[in-house]
Amino acid sequence: MKWWHEAKFGMFIHWGLYSVIGPPRVAMEVEGIPIPQYEFARQAFQSQPNAARDWARLAKQAGQKYMVMTTKHHEGFCNFDTKLTDYCAPKQAAGRDLVREFVDARAPRG
Q1: What is the pLDDT at residue 107?
Q2: Strand, coil or helix: 12
Q3: How far apart are CA 42 and CA 55, in angstroms?
Q4: Backbone angles phi, psi at 66, to 5 degrees
Q5: Which one in 6, 32, 99, 101 has a CA-CA gap of 20 to 30 Å to 81?
Q6: CA distances from 48 to 11, 29, 45, 53, 101 (A)
Q7: How many CB atoms lie within 10 A of CB 29?
Q8: Could you tell me which residues are beta bridge partners of residue 35?
Q9: What is the Cα–Cα distance from 5 to 48, expressed in whole angstroms?
Q10: CA 6 to CA 86: how far, in whole Å?
């Protein structure tokens, strides 16, 4: 906690299927969207190649000291590969493990 308080400035990334719909991040619950209607977001949810690297670069340029990414969301959709469900970015939607890309992203040195 001491390090976090001293870091002061960082980025939280809360990104998932609901991003296709727009705010709020709990759109399915708040808006009362039935699951079959919410499923269209699965096909529309895509990620630009190297998005995580771009985020890391922007964070460094802004002077941020840390980045945190939400990996699983309220509706159960996972941004990582898992054997426990097919309701995840690699098996549906983006076709890639978005958390792995986030972990592997490195801000340019210098």
Answers
A1: 52
A2: strand
A3: 22
A4: -155, 165
A5: 32
A6: 19, 27, 10, 10, 11
A7: 12
A8: none
A9: 32
A10: 39
Output the pTM of the full model.
Answer: 0.81
Residue type at position 10: G
Instruction: Report d(CA 110, CA 104) in Å as an integer.
Output: 18
Q: Which helix (H) or strand (E) holds 69?
A: strand 66-69
CA dihedral for 70, 82, 48, 24, sign (positive or negative)? negative
Contact 66, 11 (CB under 8 A): yes
- pLDDT value at position 81? 96
Which candidate, 16, 28, 4, 10, places its Cα nearest to that of 71? 16
**At a CB cut-off of 8 Å and minimum separation 6, what does 98 contact?**
15, 47, 52, 79, 80, 89
Note the pLDDT of residue 17.
82
Tokens 């469900």 appear where? 85
Give me 97's structure tokens. 């493990």
Q: What are the per-10-residue average pLDDT scores of the chain (110 residues)?
A: 91 85 69 77 82 92 93 89 94 91 74
